[in-house]
Each structure stands twice: as C-alpha cells, then as structure tokens.
Amino acid sequence: MNEPAPQRVILVVDDALDTLRMLCDALAAEGYAVLAARDAPEALQRFDATVPDAVLLDAVMPGVDGFALCRQIKATPAWSHVPIVFMTGLSDTEQIVRGFASGGVDYVVKPLRIPEVLARLATHVRNAQATRLARDAVDVAGLGVVMLDGQGRAAWRSPQASRWLEAAFAQSETPAEAAAAWLVQARRAGSQTLALSDGRLLLARHMGESGLGESMLLLSQAAPEAAAPRGLQQAALTPRETEVLSWLSKGKTNRDIGDILGMSPRTVNKHLEHIFEKLGVETRTAAAAVAGQLLNS
C-alpha cells in the first residue's frame, strides 16, 4: 500500500492579522500545513520547531524587518535551502531589490492576488524539493558540493560539505567567514587545498559555472600522500597547473585533459603556456619528460 505524500509546510510571516488569516485560509484549502508568525522572533521559533518547505515573508515589519530575517535564515545551514517569497508593495522597487539581495527567490505584490501567490509558491516548493533530493543523493555518494552565487555566497551546500567545512574552520574566530573566503579563493584559482589537524587534506575543485551565475565546487578529503609531489610543488605551479601537467605526463591530449578537469581545451592550452614558461621548456614532450622527473623526485 502506497503511503500518502507528506504534507508541505508553509510559514507565513506578517504583522497584519487580516493578511495572515487570508493566506492561512487559502493555503489550508490547497492542502498545505500552515504556520503563522507576527514578527521575526516568532518566525525563528517556528523554524526551531519544524523547518518549513517555504516562507511567505512580509518585507516591512516592526522591529526586525523581513530582509534581516531572511539573511538570518539563509545564514543558518540547516535552513538555507528554504525558499523565501517576499510580500511587498507594488511600487516598492527598492524593497524588491533588497529582497533578492537578502536571499529571497521571488516576490508577490500587495494587495495580494491569491491565485498568483499559490502558483508561485507551488513552483518554488517543487524546485526546493528537487534541490533537496539532489543534495541528499550527493551526500549519500559521499561527496561534498557547494554552490556559490555570483557574489561568492553559499547558495546551498550538501550536508557532507557542511560537516567538512565546519570541522576544518572550527578554530577560526569567524568560521563561516573563513570558510567562505577559502571557497571563493578556490573558485578563483580553480582549486584549493587545506591541511587539516588530523594530517589529512581538504580539497576544493571548481567544477564550472551554471547559466545562473552560480559556481559549483566539489570537496573531497585525501591523505597527505595524495597531494602534489614535492618536486612539482618546488616548480611553483598552481594546483590547477599541477593537475594539467600530471595528465599531460600520462599522454593525455588537451581535449582529454579538459574533459577530465572540466575545462575547455583552450583553457588547458593557456595553463600549458604558463607551465612551459615555469619549467623552461618549449614542447609537450619536454614538459612530459620534466614532469616524469619531478613526479619521481
């Protein structure tokens, strides 16, 4: 016998009692379980009790406004995946911009048109569910994945990535900021390595960008011996150049290397130009020979 699908939970946050009642009635009629909050502290209490599937959030509230509440939710790893839809005035362009900047995924204008609210909300609930399923699948596979938005903020990260990053930067004065800076550096450089307290290494590799301006970083852990050989380190190559040279020494073509490392053949060729200059060689054969010597040094 098939089990019924779990009921989706929507949190509505608004200081206007009439708006709360109207939305709660409409959402309940659509089959949602509805939680209500009149301000930011109440909303956080609801999150502590149960993490909702989506939030309808009033932009302007007394005390802590909706923008600050949204930033707090998005800064909490266990809650950051929840889509937040702002409710704002029709002509309040500044509020709309602030809503997106604080982490909101969409907005609806007041006075609210209930069919539009329900349609937008259903779309974001489905998308968030698909994202969670993908994230859980990645975690089951033992992989750590972080998605950075265009401003270098973590759009989402898999549970495995969260565990590794929290452990790696636990001794920092500001762990979240230190982890974020390290990830941004990994995106810029192509890859980054961090020595852990137990002697292992935390590796971050930039896998490319999506059409939405987001970047995917793949995290993994390795024993110290999996790091680049000392000879290659002494050649002053970047981690990405080291990977390219290592595959070159195995006889791989630029296209092969690009497919393996997730970059275009043109980018591979640019890396090789820098490698040739640093090694003082002019051909692929000479670079492969030097690489063989360094790999065995």
Describe the model.
It is a single chain. The strands form 2 sheets. A 5-stranded parallel β-sheet has the order 2-1-3-4-5, sandwiched between helices. Strands 7-6-10-9-8 form a 5-stranded antiparallel β-sheet, with helices on both faces. Helix content is about 50%, strand content about 20%. The longest helix has 27 residues, at about 115-140. The protein has 3 domains: about 10-135, Response regulator (Rossmann fold), CATH 3.40.50.2300; about 140-225, 2-Layer Sandwich (Beta-Lactamase), CATH 3.30.450; about 230-295, Arc Repressor Mutant, subunit A. The relative contact order is 0.07. The protein has about 300 residues and is an alpha/beta fold. The model is unreliable at about 225-230 (pLDDT under 50).
In short:
This protein has twelve helices and ten strands. With 297 residues, it is an alpha/beta fold.
Write the layout of secondary structure elements.
Blueprint: E1 9-13, H1 17-29, E2 33-37, H2 40-49, E3 54-58, H3 66-74, E4 84-89, H4 93-101, E5 106-110, H5 114-140, E6 144-148, E7 154-157, H6 159-168, H7 175-189, E8 191-195, E9 201-209, E10 215-222, H8 230-234, H9 239-249, H10 254-261, H11 265-279, H12 284-295
Parallel strand pairs: 1-2, 1-3, 3-4, 4-5
Antiparallel strand pairs: 6-7, 6-10, 8-9, 9-10
List keywords for this structure.
297 residues; alpha/beta; Rossmann fold; Beta-Lactamase; Arc Repressor Mutant, subunit A; 3 domains; five-stranded parallel beta sheet; five-stranded antiparallel beta sheet; 10 strands; 48% helix; 19% strand; elongated
